[in-house]
């Protein structure tokens, strides 16, 4: 052949997609889509959508109005969709309706907390707030839908839009999969806003990026009595306190002392690990947090029982399951030492265990190419794993997936609070970046995937 296979692919694409592919091949696509997303009419529309969602936050599996808004916007665009999926979810389709299929996902649910930010579009629902950026996630996916719908005739394949309920502990991703909504999807991409990363920058990594997590609750029972005669009681508060101290020691033993340090404060303990070590040591890092301690209602009465609860986290399934077993053993064993009994519940019926979020290596390489073409090499960062968790991990258990963080910090403005804070604020300038990245990852995946398959098949037939 007189030219390489890659050059031939680009030449074919130039003939088929003259509006998207130029002499630089694929590299200009992300910038063009970002320019589209930054148009005033598109940006203003996204801001309006985001503020409507923010004013009316809904908890997991209750996102009925949010789902209604999404469907109304998709109807305006002429995008087909399925609803309901997983109670309130919406699955949209843009393209040919035929393989290959690539998915982009946004979570819809809010948090059970009171917003303390005073502004024109503050939450109108007492005790509920979009304090994790999911209102922006939905908006950016709708923005991506608008971009992709503009180029629908150029898609040789199908982009699947996943508007998912109940990410915050409800395992909405698991229900999406159980209903078969992503059958035949070849890859899926997801993002999360990051208030401590400058706007225009993204960060992620290959392999483990977020930990797997689970919940536990234990009722430690003793014998109540008057505080003046504690010798006639069996004190569950003392037993629960010893349990927490023992959990601290458990975590210290489970973690690799070379790459972690244990910190203990009141009823909260966690592991913070050094992040410059090999992957095998990262996989050994674990966290147990006791965040719930309830017992007693009077100053002079020892209660009959105490309830404690919290979360546990690890980067590998093996470490996670070992930690779960040891938590149960420690709670029951230490309670018995104080002559108490303990019933341990891991709450997995209502709060399913989240696997670790593990990024596909090939998709990591692909993401870096697309993101660098849009944002520049210096704005695409490799990050260290975080002990937070994400139910995006359920998707990654069954198909290649990639999850990344999108910066929104503007250093010239007020410092942004972390997610899950009642003072969390979103920098709406982030919206075009997320929309364009979603669209670029999906569109370019199909443009690169389909021609390669076709060309390889063509060459194969020539050889026959």
From TrEMBL:
Ranges of residues in domain Peptidase M20 dimerisation: 212-333
Entry similarity comment: Belongs to the peptidase M20 family.
Upper classification of the organism: Eukaryota, Viridiplantae, Streptophyta, Embryophyta, Tracheophyta
GO BP, sorted A to Z: auxin metabolic process
Signal peptide (residue range): 1-23
PANTHER family noted in UniProt: IAA-AMINO ACID HYDROLASE ILR1-LIKE 4, PEPTIDASE M20 FAMILY MEMBER
Cofactor detail note: The Mn(2+) ion enhances activity.
Pfam family, one: M20_dimer
Record keywords: Hydrolase, Manganese, Metal-binding, Signal
InterPro entries found in the cross-reference section: Amidohydrolase, Bact_exopeptidase_dim_dom, ILR1-like_Hyd, Peptidase_M20, Peptidase_M20_dimer
Cofactor needs: Mn(2+)
Binding site for Mn(2+): 132, 134, 168, 192, 420
Protein name as annotated: Peptidase M20 dimerisation domain-containing protein
